[in-house]
């Protein structure tokens, strides 16, 4: 694709009009509320709160009548926002599966609210609470995506009655970012009834309304007197660790550490964070994956410091995991091991039409790597309500020796009222280049995406070019030196009449991708089809897929130990069958099986799961297994990955969890046990106990040897002023 054609794509941004939705209300203000968050709503402030008398069904039948009713109340005082949801629903129909913070609530009855605190329809916060009072929150930067690894400091409690359940929420102003004396926030309210799979919303009540579209919100006035105080948050920690290595004579080490995070609001909309001697002892372990490709796997960020404001660093459109210019796991981690961080600084927020995100981190000497400085900066500017441009700069190399810099620019035009028909539409593009200690002159990349993501028709096309010398050292780029074209369409009708009694929605999919090298030769192509893909009104999911594909191996590929596929071109067909039970069931089974040709042989992949929880969600057991059986002329192979997660919760603030993973090919067994006790939001005690075993060749699983364990006790306390 020529540069001139690429620039022509950007010119399309200016051809569309700006549209907005109008839904205004004003919440009462009290100087200092005397509220106990307990789910009872027996204080006088709730009598005078602004009240939304009911939400409207969005899915499956927009505006349809149901036996359910949801009342929402809201007000604020100087330091907090208060919300309450009253969900009229018989007690014996309420569904709960989890009490784990940020747990999977897709099969639970829950309520949620979205806050766009800058009132510009760009970014936002999501706060979600199920009927057990379990909290889930996240950062929004895209109408279809939310980062739920962020944990804000806020309070929520629920209480179940005979014919209703109530959720009471308090969100401190200091948890949010907003402009001082700004007259309004944008807000949207949700309620989900798991038994009947019904979604209720206040504003976005069409089937095309995307779940996290902060433009489809109401204007909530009365927040101009909210104060973040001095905007200072101080979070010291202390941790004690005991490490025992059984491979070197059961050698044990005792280690004590302390550090802190300091947050200061530079302006009401922009804040700075300082972290000193950063520790991640309480961070959840990675979920292991089986890799049958010749490219590296992607693992999401889980560390709290890097998650804070992570949505402001997002760059480009249509990139997915094909290219992430700033991949924060490049900092403080080396080959899966933690690299100590001496200190780090972040600056995040919005001022007017400008959003800013900056990061500086200094790591310590470790694993024969010298201490290294890392710097990342991201700026974005809103030209109109729908059109945004931005730039990204990263500097530093994890090896601590090389110089590396990446610079990039991007632009996106996005609307939820395309051609005045309340349809979603997006067009965007990006360009970037790396420099430093690198060879070659093909160091840039660029691409675009056009997307029409709607309920009946979901279609998109994207193009990405990555130079063979493009090397973003702080990024994730699994296939440099390629040109990637992808796109397709999904037609998703919702049948009515007699057929609608058996099928809620069909998903007929046809998507394709092609990857060429810089010389124009095809390296990969794949067509994914779904001739059968449906969900029933009860929530059962049935799917059959047919996926022909092609792979060209430039070098011999060792897919498993001792099994080497020769270089050359391979054309083969894969098929998949997938069945899932409704998520609202207390006992769920499901899985998928891929089968068919694979390179010059065959491969069968079985992925199954079982999940059980008791009625109040205090106990949850999840078992997942992947078993792959390959049959190739060069040899047969087996890959297995088994995972078991057990959770017991005394209440949403006191949770014990255990996560065990077994990888057959490496013979490694890992168990991560965690106790988290939240005294109050922002004040936590963690107890973490990790076990590791090794199964050696020729030995059974039950004869695995203990290779090490680690115990960590961490206290984290937050003061705000």
Report on the structure:
The chain is mainly β and 721 residues long. It is built from four helices and 44 strands. It has a 24-stranded antiparallel barrel. Strand 37 (601-613) and strand 38 (619-632) form a beta hairpin.
Describe the structure concisely for a colleague.
It comes from Thermotomaculum hydrothermale. This protein is 3% helix and 54% strand.
Q: Any key phrases for this structure?
A:
721 residues; Immunoglobulin-like; 9-stranded mixed beta sheet; 44 strands; DUF5916; signal; DUF5916 domain-containing protein
What level of helicity do the residues show?
under 10%
Low-confidence stretches: 1-21
Please give the number of β-strands: 44
What would you say the CATH architecture of the domain at 20-221 is? Answer: Sandwich
What is the end-to-end distance?
Answer: 54 Å
Structural class based on helices, strands and sheet pairing: mainly beta
CATH topology grouping of the domain at 20-221: Immunoglobulin-like
- Structural shape: globular
User: In terms of quaternary structure, what is this?
Assistant: single chain
Radius of gyration: 26 Å
Compute the number of helices: 4
The portion of residues forming beta strands comes to over 45%
Question: How is the biggest beta sheet arranged?
Answer: 24 strands, antiparallel, barrel
User: What is the CATH class designation of the domain at 20-221?
Assistant: Mainly Beta
Mean pLDDT: 91
């Amino acid at each position: 694709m020529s540069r001139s054609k690429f620039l022509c794509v950007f010119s399309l941004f200016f051809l569309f009009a700006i549209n907005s939705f109008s839904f205004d209300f004003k919440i009462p203000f009290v100087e200092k509320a005397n509220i106990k968050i307990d789910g009872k709503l027996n204080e006088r402030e709730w009598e005078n709160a602004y009240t939304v008398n009911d939400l409207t069904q969005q899915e499956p039948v927009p505006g349809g009548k149901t036996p359910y009713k949801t009342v929402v109340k809201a007000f604020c005082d100087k330091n907090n926002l208060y919300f309450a949801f009253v969900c009229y629903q018989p007690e014996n129909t309420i569904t709960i599966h989890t009490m784990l913070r940020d747990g999977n609530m897709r099969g639970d009855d829950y309520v949620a609210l979205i806050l766009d605190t800058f009132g510009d329809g760009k970014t936002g916060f999501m706060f979600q609470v199920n009927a057990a009072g379990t909290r889930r929150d996240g950062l929004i930067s895209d109408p279809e995506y939310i980062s739920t690894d962020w944990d804000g400091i806020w309070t929520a409690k629920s209480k179940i009655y005979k014919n209703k359940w109530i959720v009471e929420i308090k969100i401190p102003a200091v948890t949010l970012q907003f402009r001082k004396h700004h007259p309004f926030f944008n807000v949207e309210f949700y309620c989900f009834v798991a038994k009947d799979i019904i979604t209720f919303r206040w504003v976005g009540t069409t089937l095309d309304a995307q779940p996290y579209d902060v433009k489809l919100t109401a204007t909530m006035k009365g927040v101009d007197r909210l104060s973040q105080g001095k905007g200072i948050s101080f979070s010291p920690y202390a941790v004690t660790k005991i490490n025992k290595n059984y491979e070197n004579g059961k050698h044990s080490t005792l280690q004590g550490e302390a550090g802190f995070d300091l947050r200061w609001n530079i302006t009401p909309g922009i804040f700075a964070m300082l972290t000193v001697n950063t520790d991640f002892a309480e961070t959840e372990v990675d979920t292991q994956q089986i890799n049958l490709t010749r490219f590296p796997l992607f693992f999401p960020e889980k560390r709290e410091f890097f998650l804070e404001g992570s949505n402001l660093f997002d760059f480009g459109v249509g990139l997915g995991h094909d290219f992430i210019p700033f991949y924060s796991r490049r900092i403080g981690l080396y080959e899966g091991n933690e690299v100590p961080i001496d200190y780090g600084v972040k600056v995040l927020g919005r001022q007017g039409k400008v959003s800013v995100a900056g990061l500086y981190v200094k790591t310590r000497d470790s694993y024969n790597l010298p201490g290294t400085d890392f710097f990342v900066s991201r700026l974005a500017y809103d030209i109109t309500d729908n059109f945004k441009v931005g730039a990204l700069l990263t500097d530093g190399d994890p090896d601590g020796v090389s110089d590396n810099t990446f610079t990039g620019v991007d632009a996106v035009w996005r609307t939820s009222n395309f051609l005045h028909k309340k349809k979603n539409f997006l067009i965007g593009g990006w360009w970037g280049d790396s420099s430093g200690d690198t060879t070659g002159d093909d160091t840039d990349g660029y691409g675009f995406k056009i997307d029409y993501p709607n309920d009946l028709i979901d279609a998109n096309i994207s193009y990405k070019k990555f130079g063979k010398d493009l090397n973003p050292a702080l990024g994730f780029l699994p296939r440099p030196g390629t040109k990637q074209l992808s796109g397709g369409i999904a037609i998703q009708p919702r049948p009515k009449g007699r057929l609608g009694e058996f099928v809620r929605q069909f998903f007929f999919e046809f998507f394709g991708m092609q990857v060429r090298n810089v010389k124009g030769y095809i390296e990969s192509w794949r067509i994914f089809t779904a001739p059968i893909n449906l969900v029933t009104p009860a929530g059962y999911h049935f799917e059959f897929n047919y996926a022909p594909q092609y792979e060209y191996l430039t070098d011999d590929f060792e897919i498993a130990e001792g099994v080497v596929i020769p270089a050359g071109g391979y054309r083969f067909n894969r098929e998949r069958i997938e069945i899932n039970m409704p998520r609202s069931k207390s006992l769920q089974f499901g899985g998928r099986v891929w089968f068919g040709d694979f390179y010059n042989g065959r491969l069968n992949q079985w992925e199954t799961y079982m999940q059980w929880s008791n009625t109040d969600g205090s106990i949850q057991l999840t078992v997942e297994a992947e078993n792959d059986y390959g049959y190739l002329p060069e040899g047969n192979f087996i890959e297995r990955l088994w995972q078991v997660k057990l959770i017991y919760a005394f209440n949403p603030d006191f949770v014990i969890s255990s996560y065990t993973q077994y990888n057959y090919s490496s013979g490694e067994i890992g168990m991560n046990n965690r106790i988290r006790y939240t005294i109050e939001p922002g004040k936590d005690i963690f107890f973490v106990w990790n076990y590791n075993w090794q199964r050696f060749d020729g030995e059974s699983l039950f004869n695995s040897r203990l290779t090490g364990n680690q115990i960590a006790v961490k206290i984290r306390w937050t003061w705000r002023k």
